[in-house]
Amino acid sequence: VNGSKELLIEMGLDRKLIVPPTDEVIRMAAAEIRHGRLVVMPTETVYGLAADAFNPIAVSKIFETKNRPFFDPLICHITDLEMLNETAVDIPEPIEKLIEKFWPGPLTVVVTKSSKVPEIVSAGLSTVGIRMPSHPIAKKLIQNVGRPVAAPSANIFGKISPTQPEHTLELDGDVAAIIDGGKCEVGIESTIVRYHNNSLHLLRPGGITLEQIEECCSLNVIIEESAKLPEAPGQLESHYAPNSNLILIDEGEKITHETTNCCFIGYKRVREQSNFIYQEALSPTGSLTLAASRLFELLHKMDSLNPEIIYVERLPEVRLGHAIMNRLRKSSAKN
Ligand code: TXA
Ligand code: MG
């Protein structure tokens, strides 16, 4: 799209502005990606910072903008099996089964990469993470780009993931547009799996639960989410960290160190007597789906109040509670 530059500026796409997801905006944003720039796109999990996956210079801008270490590989986002075959080779049968069941959706598979995938995307590994998002705006954008789009979560490395367009405004780089998709429905990143040595490995719990995966492929799943030597830096112990200290407590547990400057996130309920400057329940109904969708939003909200401590109540580690607790433990790891 030649001469799109002026149009983009006119529409505000050349500044850090959140733009509505009209067909025209999506077409122009796709053209910007093809020209090597970045675009913030909504997905059903979290917002992603997207670049042309086959353009190493464009991809390097992702690392620069996020302040992300080059040893942390990116996920390629696709919209059809043709793109899958362009990106991966030798997909094992259990992975095919999972793909069939859970794509499009919050599942990333780590498979052997094709020669088209630049080293910078896979951080030098022979494998690549691939996901087919279900979000209509992400789909339309990738289709318009016409090739896979590499996209990590659109936050500064190690910080809280973005579930609303406003959360991505802190990014400062060659970002052509932030496409407004409202709040992310799932609210927590995709589940990452890999099949090797005849077993299925869970590298990161996420939007598709362990229970769902086990049911689909009746395989014993090896959980590797907190490896000491991370194969995937999503496994790094401290991640998703607010600026404030985050401390995990049990329901009803007495808070011994309550300063006048604390926030609280309860699972189902807030606390009746407290000095919290702000508190909210993650999921008044107890639904873990609701809890996952609100987790990062509440962390962003509390963190913006600059409390000394954010206390968060532990949740049951079943279904989505597994992914939620994984994120919360990492958020609290620096303390
Ligand atoms: O839901 C999601 O997955 C979101 C949205 C935007 O799609 N993306 C996301 O990307 O969470 P990111 O970069 O924040 O996390 C991707 C994780 C990283 O921790 C990375 O280490 C791991 O995926 N990963 C990527 N490629 C890998 C590979 N070849 N082997 C092992 N882990 C890999
Ligand atoms: Mg991330």
Structural class by sheet pairing and helices: alpha/beta
Q: pLDDT average, as an integer? A: 93
Beta-strand content:
15-25%
Oligomer: single chain
The global form is: globular
Largest β sheet strand count, sense and barrel closure? 11 strands, mixed
Order of helices and strands: HEHEEHEHHEHEHEEEEHEEEEHEH
N- to C-terminal separation? 49 Å
What compounds are bound to the protein? threonylcarbamoyladenylate, magnesium ion
The count of β-strands is 15
Q: Which percent bin holds the helix content?
A: 25-40%
Evaluate the radius of gyration: 20 Å
Order of strands in the sheet with most strands: 1-8-2-3-7-4-6-5-9-10-11
Report the uncertain regions.
none
Number of helices: 10
What can you tell me about this protein's structure?
The protein has 335 residues and is of the alpha/beta class. It has helices at residues 4-11, 23-34, 56-66, 81-87, 93-102, 119-122, 136-145, 210-217, 288-303, 320-332; strands spanning 18-19, 38-41, 48-52, 75-77, 107-112, 127-131, 149-150, 175-179, 191-196, 199-204, 221-223, 245-249, 262-266, 278-281, 309-313. Strands 1-8-2-3-7-4-6-5-9-10-11 form an eleven-stranded mixed β-sheet, sandwiched between helices. Strands 12-15-13-14 form a four-stranded parallel β-sheet, covered by helices on one side. Strand 10 (199-204), helix 8 (210-217) and strand 11 (221-223) form a beta-alpha-beta unit. Bound molecules: threonylcarbamoyladenylate and magnesium ion. Residues 152-153, 161 line the site of magnesium ion.
